[in-house]
Request: fold
Amino acid sequence: MTQDGYFSGGVAVITGAGSGLGAAMAARFAAQGMPVAVLDIDGEQAERTAQRIRDNSGRALAYKVDVSDQSALQAAANEVENAFGHCSVLCANVGVQQFGTIDRLTENDWRWVLNVNVMGVIHTVNAFLPLIRKSQARRHIVITSSSAAYSPGIRMGAYTASKYAITGYGETLRMELANEGVGVSILFPAGMATTHLQSSQKARPAELGILEIRREDIDAMMQSRKVDVAGHVATAEYATRHLLSELAENRRYIITHGDCREAIVSNFDDLLAAHERAQLD
Reply:
């Protein structure tokens, strides 16, 4: 469907598009001939993504935006409307990582992760939904969750909680927008060979102190999730290979890569077993 002009006339807006998964998304939509608004807290990185698109004869503009700042997102939405007139595909893709045992995470750690990963998604949708509603092209919203939402591990409690939260948000958003013809898909990326951890360090407010990343935390998390690095970690380009076709089919869930079948089946087996016990007199 994507090869037959499915996204024709559309405009894509992507947060966290300065690097990694967001930049790969931007390239995919630009290849369909869509103008792309590249949003990122790192303005220079955003401009580099936009320039790569322009170098390939596409249209792209870069905006430096902190998604935890609702007024900044609204200002960006106003600029996108002035530049492109509307938005047909919105990818709420920003997420920061915070490792550490539950008792080591401070209240400020929790507030930072939830402000960016949860409220940032909500602010993004609130700012751009009016532009989606005025678009005449095929309309979709992509909420970037994580494989951690169905395959959690230790030492990443704040991050995992935030991804559970936006998964639930995405489920409700999909139901509420269905009658308007706006598709909502929840994207579950696994590990990727990107600069996500470095980006998280740069995005952390200075007053919260340096984001400490301990190798022992990462190793413990990987072991607890029984993750095979070779099968679980991929490039962002590989992770987005089916994105456009999945959106064209309005898929509820999009898993980018990684074999987490065992974890998914185990979770739902336990839920079904609990349901069956509840039916007993």
